[in-house]
Structure formats: C-alpha cells, structure tokens
Amino acid sequence: MSIEVSKGTRTIVRATDVIDYLNVSQLNRALEEAARECPQGFTIDLSEATYMDSAGVQAVIYAYKLIVPRGGVLAVVVQNPNTRDILRITGVERLPGVHLCGDLSCAEEIVPECRPEVRRPDE
Amino acid sequence: MIRTRMRDESADDAARRRGWIGYVWTLALGLLLTLGLVALYPHFPLGRYPIPYVLLIMLIAYLFGEGPAILAFVLGTLAFDYFFVPPIRSLWPIATGPSEWAGYAAFLMGTSIVGFATVLMRRSRRQIERLLADLRRELAERERAEEALRESEEEQIAFYRRTIAAATGGKLIVTERAEIERIAGPAISSWEIRTPGDIRVIREAVERVASDAGFDQSRCERLGIALGEAITNVIKHAGTGEASVHRLEDGLIVVISDHGPGIPALALPDVALTRGYSTAGTLGIGYKVMMEFADRVYLATGDEGTTVGLVMMRHPPETSLAFGGQPTRSEGETTP
C-alpha cells in the first residue's frame, strides 16, 4: 500500500493497492494528520485501492470519529465495487457526515476548503 | 425442603430408638459380665482388675454413645466395688487398704479415660460421616445443577443456530467443527497462519486456486476478501491457526481454524444479526463481510477454538437458499 496526504485547498488522503490488517495503522496515522491539517473535512481517495477488507472500514470509521463530531465532513472516493459493497454492508455509507463518491470531482463539491482553526482568546 | 425436614425427623426418631436400645444393651452386658466375673472369681480372679469393665465401657461407648457409656461406667464402678474390692459384697467402705484403694483408683481412671476417649472418637467419626454425607449431597446437587445448565446452554445454542440460520437466509450456519470437516473432505492445499503477513500470502494463493477452478475474477476477489476477514480474526483473537482449501462439486470451501478462546454463545446473535457499524464492538463487522462475500459461512466455535468454513460456488447462487441443502464434494475426489 502507498499512502499520500496532499495538502492543498482541500486535503486528500490517497491509499492505493491493498488495505488490510497488516498496514492499516499507516492509513490511520495519515488520517490523523489530515484531521489535524483540516478539521473541516477531507477526502479519503480509495479509487486505486485494489483490495480493502474490514480493516479499511475501521480506518474510515476512525476518520469519521475524528472529524464528524467536530462538525466536519468526510468524502470517500470508491471505484472498486467490492470496496463499495463493504462500506455499504457495514453501514458506513449511512453515517451522517460521510459521503461516498465515484470520483474526486464529487468529493470536491462535498468537502469544504481547508482553513486553519480560529482559536478563541480564552483558549 | 419438606422432604428434607421429614427425612431429618425420621433420622432423629431412629437415633432416639437406638439410644434406648443402647441402655438396654448396657444393662444386659453389664449384668452378664458381672455374673461371669463373679462366677469365675473363686478360680480366676479376673474381676480384681479393671480391664473387663474398661473393655465393656469402650464397647458401649463406641456402639451407643455417651449416655449408655455413663450408665456402664456407673454400673461398672458399683459392681467392681461391691464384688471385687475388699470388703467384698459391700459398697462402703469402698476399700480397706492402700493396694485396694490403688486398684479402685486405677479402675476409675482407666474406665473414665477410655470411655471419654471412645466417646470423642465416636463423635469424630459421626461428624466425619455427616460431613461426607453433606459433601456427597452437595456434589450430587452440583452435578444436577451443572447438567441442567448444560442442557439449558445446549437448548440456547440450538435456538441460536435456528434463529441465525433463519435470520441470515441460510448464509450463516452455526454447527460443529466435525460437520465442517465432513463437508470439506480432503484438502487441495493447506497453510499455517502465524503472522499478519500470512493474510495476504494465503489470500492470494486461494484466489489462484479459485481462478484455476474456473471462478471469474470478481468471485475470486470476493472469496479473497471473505478469507482475509477470517484469517484476520485468527491473527487478532488466537494468534495462530490453519487454513485449507477443499473442492466441492461446483465450488470451493476454505476452512480456517484456530485454538483461541472462541466466540461466547451469547455473542453469536450479535455476530449475525447486528446491522452495520456498532460502537458496542467490532465483532460483527468481519462476519458480516464474510456473509456478504461468501455464498455460505459455516461457523463452529467453543472452548477448543473457532472453525470457519467459507463456501464459494463457481457461479453465484440465484438466492442465498439456492443450495438449501449442504454443498457436496465432487465425485471421485482423492486426497492430494
């Protein structure tokens, strides 16, 4: 698996090839980085993932827990029908604040632009 | 409870009856011994020694307990004084000279010590017998309770099996390990599961077997995903295990087993019936993926570990019940 976090106006975490129990911790670390970088939301691009099992689902749920309770949104780009099936049967696609997309342009419409968090004076 | 009380009362009655019999026996044996000693006295003065009465008191104390033993002691003391301690045939004065007093004192000491010790011994024996009886009763009750619990658990598991099979449309069958092995038959290939790296190695090897068996790419991948879940469970919950692939009449079954702690019976419905992601735990996610991606999942779990059988037919069944019976092995198959 290769993982890349691209930090532009929108943050994208791109994971390719195989996502399983063996390497999911790398993906989790990238998701943490993206959540720190852009708490408003980001895209998880799985369009080049050839294999993903429930370890990948756990990673998406982890990202959901990092982002959505703080008002952020998450777009997950999926093209592999098996990966989409896994996200469907495990109920991830029904989680509020999580959107499944077929391509990056769909994700761009959902995920807001990234801006630094404004700190209040008492913080 | 009522039965126990009645049993206790009848036991008390029996003990009281035995008590009266003890006093009667004491009188009879005391009389017999005294008469015998008196008859022997002119020829063989055994009555001058405390031994016969010590033995009598010991016998009475052992057989009938402290009450008859005290009676035997009193009767023996009087008889010994009256018939065998000079002045003969007189209760008073008890003894005339120092040697007679010494003999009388020896009699009192011997009979009382032996009688007391025997009573204590008898009590201890009865206490031990009572403890043993209580222990036996407790063990029997515990065995009955364990048997009832076992039956209840078996009924519960049977209920779960039927419910789970019905709720999953026959996709998840909870069964015994031997049944999975019987369905699977001889293995085409087998692997040991030792490290997380084995997940990918075994998955890709099984996908190749499926491809060689004529499965299209999508079904190979779906079998691989279900298998990945099963092996991940082995790594997570048991550490190590085994996997093997077996040929069926028009498909494959992959058997994955471990010797981990197994899934508790009460968690089985959660595995099969919980929908989607649950914050309560992740036990069900892997099994849901297996059920979705394999055509049928056999699950045997218990204290000896867990065995999962993933069935994948060459072509997708029209419905999950398309092979409502059990899949069969291909004809003429032999062990590789």
Query: Which strand order does the major sheet of chain B show?
Result: 1-5-6-4-3-2
- Structural class category of chain A: alpha/beta
Principal-axis shape of chain A equals: globular
Cα end-to-end separation of chain A? 39 Å
Task: Summarize the structure in words.
The complex is a heterodimer of chains A (123) and B (336). Chain A is an alpha/beta fold and 123 residues long. Chain A is 36% helix and 25% strand. A 5-stranded mixed beta sheet of chain A has the order 1-2-4-6-7, sandwiched between helices. A two-stranded parallel sheet of chain A has the order 3-5. In chain A, strand 6 (73-77), helix 3 (81-89) and strand 7 (98-101) form a beta-alpha-beta unit. In chain A, helix 1 packs parallel to helix 2. The longest helix of chain A has 14 residues, at 24-37. Chain B is α+β, with helices and mostly antiparallel strands. Chain B is built from 9 helices and 6 strands; from the N terminus they run H-H-H-H-E-H-E-H-H-E-E-H-H-E-E. Chain B has helices at residues 2-40, 51-64, 66-84, 98-167, 177-184, 197-212, 217-237, 268-273, 283-293, and strands at 172-174, 187-193, 241-248, 251-258, 296-302, 305-313. Chain B has a 6-stranded mixed beta sheet, with helices on both faces. In chain B, a hairpin with a 2-residue loop joins strand 5 (296-302) and strand 6. In chain B, helix 1 runs parallel beside helix 3 and helix 7 (217-237) packs antiparallel against helix 9. The longest helix of chain B has 70 residues, at 98-167. Classes of the chains: A alpha/beta (123), B alpha+beta (336). Chains A and B meet through helix 2 and helix 3 of A and helix 6, helix 7 and helix 9 of B.
